[in-house]
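Sequence, please.
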C-alpha cells in the first residue's frame, strides 16, 4: 500500500479469456462465467451551461471507471469532481452508494468560473439535480456510453499433479488386477500332516500345477481335486 492507501499494482501478464477458455498465469486461471443482465454505464458527458444565457461553455466526459478529479476547460473554467457515487441512494438523509458498480451514478461537481472563482457546487445524477437552480452555471447531461460486463472467477488449483499421479496409480492397479493373478498359499503342519490351502483370483488350474510342481520337487504327493473326483464317482 502507498501513503494514499491505494494499492501499488504491478502488471504481471495480459491476455484474453472466454467461456471454457481460461486465461492462465502462474498457478492461476481466470474463467469467464456469465454476462450481466443489464449493461453498466461506461462514460457520461456533461455540458456546462450558463443558466442565464443558455450558452454552453464547454463539455466534459467522465470515465466512470477512472474519473479525474479536475477537468480543465477553456476560457478559465474548471470543473472539480468532489464526490462520485456509482450506485446512488439516500440513507439516513445522506447520499451514499450501494455498491461500486456504476448502475445509477451520481456526482458532486464544483464549477469554477471567472465570475465564481470559489466555485458553485451541485449534486447531479439520473433525474437528479440538487443545488443547481441557484447557480449561474449548471451541469447538463450530454450523452452516455454503455458497456456489457462479464463476471470472472480466479482459481488457483495445485491439486492437478496429485490427481494425475493418483490416476496413473489407479490405472496401473487396474491393469495388474485384470492381467496378473493374485495368489496366496498357506502351509500348516499338524500331527505329522501337512495342510495346504491356496487362493487365487483367476486361473486356479495354473496355481494347482505350480503347487504340484513344488510338491514333486520335495517328494510329496501331488494335489487332487477332491470335488472333481467326487463328481466323477471316484
Amino acid at each position: 500500500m502507498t501513503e494514499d492507501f491505494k494499492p501499488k499494482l504491478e502488471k504481471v501478464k495480459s491476455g484474453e479469456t472466454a467461456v471454457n477458455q481460461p486465461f492462465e498465469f502462474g498457478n492461476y486461471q481466470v474463467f469467464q462465467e456469465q454476462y450481466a443482465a443489464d449493461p453498466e454505464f461506461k462514460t457520461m458527458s456533461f455540458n456546462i451551461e450558463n443558466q442565464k444565457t443558455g450558452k454552453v461553455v464547454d463539455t466534459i466526459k467522465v470515465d466512470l471507471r477512472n474519473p479525474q478529479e479536475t477537468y480543465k476547460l477553456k476560457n478559465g473554467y474548471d470543473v472539480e469532481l468532489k464526490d462520485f457515487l456509482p450506485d446512488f441512494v439516500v440513507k439516513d438523509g445522506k447520499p451514499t452508494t450501494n455498491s461500486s458498480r456504476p448502475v445509477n451514478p451520481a456526482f458532486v461537481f464544483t464549477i469554477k468560473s471567472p465570475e465564481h472563482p470559489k466555485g458553485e457546487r451541485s449534486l447531479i445524477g439520473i433525474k437528479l439535480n440538487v443545488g443547481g437552480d441557484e447557480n449561474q452555471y449548471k451541469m447538463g447531461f450530454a450523452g452516455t456510453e454503455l458497456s456489457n460486463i462479464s463476471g470472472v472467477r480466479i482459481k488457483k488449483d495445485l491439486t492437478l499433479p496429485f490427481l494425475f499421479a493418483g490416476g496413473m496409480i489407479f490405472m496401473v492397479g487396474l491393469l495388474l488386477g485384470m492381467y496378473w493373478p493374485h495368489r496366496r498359499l498357506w502351509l500348516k503342519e499338524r500331527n505329522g500332516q501337512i495342510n495346504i490351502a491356496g487362493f487365487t483370483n483367476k486361473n486356479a488350474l495354473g496355481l494347482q500345477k505350480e503347487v504340484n510342481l513344488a510338491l514333486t520337487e520335495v517328494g510329496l504327493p501331488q494335489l487332487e481335486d477332491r470335488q472333481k473326483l467326487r463328481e466323477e464317482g471316484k
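The CA atoms of residues 40 and 103 lie 5 Å apart.
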